[in-house]
Amino acid sequence: MTMLAMTTDLPIAFEHVGVVAGGVSILSDVTLRFHAGAPTILIGPNGSGKTTLLRVAMGLLQPSNGRITWGGQERVAPQRRAIVFQRPAMLRRTAAANIEYALASVDVSRDIWKQRTAELLAMVGLSGFGERPARKLSGGEQQRLALARALARNPEVLFLDEPTAALDPYSTKAIEDVLVAIAAKNIKIVMSTHDLGEARRLAGDIVFLNHGRIAETGAAADFFNAPKTSDGQRFIAGELLI
């Protein structure tokens, strides 16, 4: 009997990708590959194109030019990908029902919904929160619930758009702990952040964007210890890039 190989979205490859909206170039000539492994962290000034890059990588936005492939193929349905935005929308349901909604979208058998929901809530530190209204959770709790809901899709790749923005240090630490646990399960994380401390703590490699272009990429330790570009040096020194 012939065994079918499991499909994969990795590597995700950008080849000279550009995005133009309203006559404005948001991304320009982006050539980049996301491989399996430690988290890739996107950094750069506001407006540098981080969110747009994540949306293109997820398949939510089509490039204006260039080419993107997932596992060597174009136009692949996002069945192995999930994304969490900076301000995730919560359904007017309980925390558990928010996760069950995600489970239903990927045809998980109802017989294991309760078990899987409990596992996901535990993974994000929300055991015992299942019957609470999702919209009454704190900002940090909602973000962790959004992570659980994304994980219900059993993704191979998880995209995160500044998931700790505007959270207090306690909530930020809780989110980062969850992300470490997710990465340990061999789920590829590609995440944007404005927090250089967070990037240092989480990143395996760095993609530094400026004015919609990739200014520098490399291993996180190399970037933070000896950035190759003057813009990289200025950015990690806290200078404003205009």
Give the class-level CATH name of the largest domain: Alpha Beta
Q: Rough shape?
A: globular
Number of spatially distinct domains = 2
Number of strands: 9
Under the CATH scheme, the architecture of the largest domain is 3-Layer(aba) Sandwich
Distance from first to last alpha carbon: 60 Å
Q: Which spans of ≥5 residues are poorly predicted at pLDDT below 50?
A: 1-5
Describe the structure in your own words.
The chain is of the alpha/beta class and 242 residues long. It has 2 domains: 154 residues, Rossmann fold, CATH 3.40.50; 64 residues, no CATH class. It is 33% helix and 24% strand. The chain is built from 8 helices and 9 strands. It has a 6-stranded mixed β-sheet with strand order 5-6-7-3-8-9, sandwiched between helices. A 3-stranded antiparallel β-sheet has the order 2-1-4, covered by helices on one side. The chain starts with 11 loop residues before the first strand and ends in a 6-residue tail after the last helix. The N terminus is likely disordered.
